[in-house]
Each structure stands twice: as structure tokens, then as C-alpha cells.
Amino acid sequence: xxxxxxxxxxxxxxxxxxxxxxxxxxxxLLAALLRQNPRFHAHMSSPLAGMVDVLLGEMSSxxxxxxxxxxxxxxRVLKGLFTGYYGEAFAAEVVxxxxxxxxxxxxxxxxxxxxxxxxxxxxxxxxxxxxxxxAIQKNALRPSFMFNFxxxxxxxxxxxxxxxxxxxxxxxxxxxxxxxxGEHARQLMVLQYETLVSDPAxxxxxxxDFIGEPPFRHDFDDVQFDADExxxxxxxxxxxxxxxxxAAPERATVLPPxxxxxxxxEAFWLNERANxxxxxxx
Length: 282
Description:
It is built from 11 helices and 7 strands. It is of the alpha/beta class. The protein has one domain: Rossmann fold, CATH 3.40.50. Strands 1, 2, 3, 4, 5, 6 and 7 form a 7-stranded mixed β-sheet that branches. Helix 2 packs antiparallel against helix 3.
């Protein structure tokens, strides 16, 4: 059955799905693998989530003219945003849009694309913090956008900034919990970084099964992805660098022991008894 989603010119339909979850948890690697399939389009984070927020605000009651906008019109406007953004530049039959915000927008996405699925990439939180701090230290001569290009502070300041509710980790973590326990959880799959890098064939097979697409033979020894220009502009060259071969990294943490231990028990998705919505965790 073809998913109702973005209509291309002609009779063919384009399916839309979403990549979300926690930072530094494999979303770029997942996109790099998905784009090996000539039927798919996937990339790093797009601006669409922010554009959806702006449009929702402009169509809300803070605008006195919103009385002329019905919910059906809101749905059409938001769906049209995707149509306009992707347009004819992408010949793909299946589009994956990436943003950490999508987990917080599951009710909106369900209203626009009721057959869409969201793949939430996760990782043990201690190693997420380690990955960010490793990138900061690697680019010590280039202040990062992640911390508003501030040059002062320590790993403790940076960790607090990431972990608070508005931080790049805290917000996405809370958004993931909202989606995991919310009423639209049937549209969510949790993909662990640990599975993706150690058993990519099983991980990708689960993704295809979840979105209802026929299997595709991926090449895990020749992965291609280039975001060098974007990374350089953010002050973090190599931030989205993907290794040519999918492999599990083996390394010691750069974090002080107390910071690493702080997040050891935050992988709530591993608690089967608490998975009351039956979310698929791979």
C-alpha cells in the first residue's frame, strides 16, 4: 500500500519519513547508508523543522488573522512546505528528513503525514558527551557553534550546558522520552548506535522492515558522505565525518570519571518493563 504523502508531478507518490533522536548517535551514518539506495534521499539535518515552528506560530492565535485559517489549511500549508523544499530537485521516491526536533513534533507529523515513521538514533549518554567533548578538544583553536563560540569554560561547564533542558543533549533527550511514551509511539523506532556500528546489516534490515520498504543490499565497506563545508563554518571540522567502513570504535573516554558515571543509567530505552508503548528498539 502506497503511503499518502508528498505528491510529485505525475502519478507517483513520494513517501516521507524522519530521522531524529540524540546528537552524536549515528544519524549522519544512517543517512549516508540510506542514500546508497537510489530510491532514497537522506542527508544531515535540514531547516524544515525550524520552518515548521515558524509557520505554526504564524498560524496560531497570536496572529489576529488566524481566525481565517482552519486546521485543514494548516495541514495543507505544512505539507506544502515539504513539497516546496524538496520539489523536483530530488528524484527519490522516499525522503528522510533529519532533525533532533522531530521527536518533539510527533503529533504534528502524524497530522501531516499519518503513514510516516520516525527513526530515533540513540547512544549511551556518557559516550554522547564524550563524543562532543572529543570534537571540542580536537578543534581547540576553533570555538564551536555548540557553545555560542564561547572560549571560556571547562568540560564541566560544557556538560551542564549540553544536559540542561535547552541544551543540545537535554532537549533531544526530553523530546525522545516524549515520543517514546506518547500516543504516537507506534510511529517511532529506536535505533541504537551500538547496533548500527556493530551489526549494520541487522540495523538496516530493521529500518526497512519498519518503514515497509523492500530490502536493499548496502555496502558497509564504502560509505560516502561529505559535509566538510558545513562543518568548517560551524567551527568544528570533521563533526559529520563518516568513516568509509562501518565499524565500532574502540577508545578510552576523554571525560573525567565523575562526568562519565553521571550518565551511566540514562538509557531508559533499554528498560523493557518501562516500554509501555511497545516501541521497537534495535
